[in-house]
Amino acid sequence: MSVQATTTIRVSLQLPESHSLGQNWLAFKKIIEEESGGELELQLFPSAQLYKDKQVPQAVGSGAIEAGSAFLGRFTGAVPTIEVVNIPFLFKDDVSLRSATAGGSKMRTLLDGAVLKETGAKVLWWQAYGRNIYLNNGSAIRMPADLKGKKVRVYGKMGGWTVEAMGGAPTIMSGSKQFLAYQQKAVDVGLTGTSGVKSRKLYEVMDHMTLSYDFAIEFVAIINNDFFNSLSKKHQQIIIKAARKVETDLRNEVYSGEAQIVEELRSKMTVVELSSAERAAWKKATASVVDRFIKENGNAGLAAVEAARNP
Known about the structure:
By secondary structure, the protein is α/β, with parallel strands linked by helices. 44% of the residues lie in helices and 20% in strands. Strands 1, 2, 3, 4, 5, 6, 7, 8, 9 and 10 form a ten-stranded mixed β-sheet that branches. The radius of gyration is 19 Å and the shape is globular.
């Protein structure tokens, strides 16, 4: 009787295994290993042990590692329109965001196809990280003017443009460098998600958290396309089916869990919730970002915005 050789999928992740994205990969691991009867094996390397976030697209695309997670903005060099989801206030509500980011939507079809074509990495699923919030010390941020002249940690071009629209000076910085940067006052303000505040213990170095929720933070789980195509049809189907399940489960968990994390953090820092008037001021101050995005990306930018707005 012949014994099927085990196929190992190594995964690079910049976040800790305990983070929701780490747990998401472990849920995927459990499914594919069980469904394949052990013929597929997944090894997770969390906390940027192998590659930093910005290195993941190249590492996976080139086949240096089989799979990994990276912030969507890391693909802008190859696919400039991919940060469309980070345009502030583009989605009017959670339902609109879920529709646009769902597998098979107009936006996903457009962007996932572009990632594969330009990088050699196949998008397995999008990993919801949460919605953007602002962190700072001193006086809490409530209005766009509170960012004027401030050095702000951002994690992508759209975040940078958003900060610039409000008079701030953006500095792109990976998530793993946040704690030290805030502790050493290298920047005045930080952009991140509530789960990052909790998992990275950013409340130890920042006093205030402003729930702007101005745009969605998305990561993508990718796999080297040549590697994927080398798998049997059976194993490919197991992976695709598992990806669909863990994508839905994570998005449900992240958006329902945001409120719980905020409640946990109230005892550790000041939580600022914007009033309707304050939120309207943020929308007005950042309205130029979508126009800037379309102007820079031309017809491709317009198509991405329309796909996002009409999933």
